[in-house]
Amino acid sequence: MSQISRDDVAHLARLARLALTDDELDSFSGQLDAILQHVSQVQAVDVTGVAPTGNPLSEVNVTRPDVVEVCLTQGQALAEAPRAVDGRFAVPQILGESQ
C-alpha cells in the first residue's frame, strides 16, 4: 500500500515552490514511497539492549605531537614571491575590492 500519493507530492512541490510535470509527480511519488518503506523497515528493527551511539567505531584519531621546528623567516619566504608589499605577498585584486 502506498504511503504517499501523487497529490501529497504535488502539495509538497507547491510548498517548496517547485514546478513539477505530471511525469515528475508520478516518478517522485514512487521514489518517495520507496524511501518511506525503507525508513519503516529500519524503524521496525528491534534495538532492545543496544546502547545509543554517535559512532559505532571505537577507533580514535591518531595524531603526532606538535613539535616546533625551524622554518623560513619572513624575508626568506618573500624572497621567492613574484611581488611583495609591506612584508606580505601581493596578489591580484579580486571581486572589485579596493586595496
Brief characterization of the structure:
It catalyses: L-glutamyl-tRNA(Gln) + L-glutamine + ATP + H2O = L-glutaminyl-tRNA(Gln) + L-glutamate + ADP + phosphate + H(+); L-aspartyl-tRNA(Asn) + L-glutamine + ATP + H2O = L-asparaginyl-tRNA(Asn) + L-glutamate + ADP + phosphate + 2 H(+). The protein is mainly α.
Helix content: 25-40%
* Counted beta strands: 2
Mind telling me the C-alpha Rg? 29 Å
CATH topology of the domain at 6-43: Histone, subunit A
Which CATH architecture of the domain at 6-43?
Orthogonal Bundle
Per DSSP, what share of the residues sits in E-state strands of 2 or more residues? Answer: under 5%
What is the N-to-C succession of helices and strands?
HHHEE
Q: Give the biggest beta sheet.
A: 2 strands, antiparallel
**Biggest sheet: strand arrangement:** 1-2
Number of helices: 3
CATH superfamily of the domain at 6-43: Glu-tRNAGln amidotransferase C subunit, N-terminal domain
* Helix/strand/pairing category: mainly alpha
Bulk shape: flat
Mean pLDDT: 89
